[in-house]
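Thread: Cytochrome c, structure

OP (GT): Posting the sequence first so everyone is looking at the same thing. Length is 292 residues per the record. Can we get the structure tokens written out before standup tomorrow? I want them in the notebook alongside the other entries.
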Amino acid sequence: MRLLPAAALLALLGAGAAWYLTAPSPLPAEATAGLTGDATQGEAVFWAAGCASCHMAPEATGDAQLVLAGGQRFATAFGTFIAPNISPSPEAGIGGWTLAELANAMTRGVSPGGAHYYPAFPYAAYSKADLQDVADLKAFLDTLPPDATPSQPHELGFPFTIRRSLGGWKLLFLRDDWVVTGDLTPAETRGRYLAEALGHCGECHTPRNALGGLKTAQWLQGAPNPSGQGNIPGINSASLDWSEDEIVEYLTSGFTPDFDSAGGHMAHVVANLARLPDTDRAAIAAYLKKVP
């Protein structure tokens, strides 16, 4: 009978340890202290990170794509995620957020209220972002039109509704180290930053395991579409036999060497990257040719 109290104590200690280990882990307060954002620089970060592609209203076109009202639906094996309003509205969007709160959301996946965000928001990639870029991004976001559309709750079933469990997911999969390492040229290093961090290319082009973590050993080798419809192609050096110039042309115009054109979500990616300097698209191309 003495074993029962001991087992109960061990269970209690185990639960306490799990609760502690899965707690949200925000940035230290000093991480963003003294940073001042530049909206002009932030616009480039905005396009590189693809913010409008997910957070504009469904079917928005033209200037309406800068109204980040949210509402787009993203179906996955875990449920349907609905992009939230990230316009500068202080009530419905993120207009009342501080820089520290935006940095915690983007690089740690932690909400202003101290809860875990779902990794459908690609903070696993943004965790590598330079905090100055986050400051610049916030400065640009603050210039965009506010919108009062309320964010909608995600459509998830149990147990995916337990946000605390995401702390365990982060322990397993949230890293701030680079996938491609070694001796890189300045252009390849810049391309790595754009592709692995801001552009979060791996989120779509890398397969995932049963828990939704990226299989980094198969980096950019292609993956099933999360919607269940078809596959997303590989873009590593073995999968993509285009030259660097052909990759740059695709990221600029959307046209492939075979005169096909980008469609679906990739059309938004191309439209975003086409707004970046030519040197950035060339850097991405150099990086992709470096991916083993």
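GT: Both are above now. Quick notes for whoever picks this up: The mean pLDDT is 91. Strands lie at 73-76, 79-82, 155-156, 223-224, 231-232.
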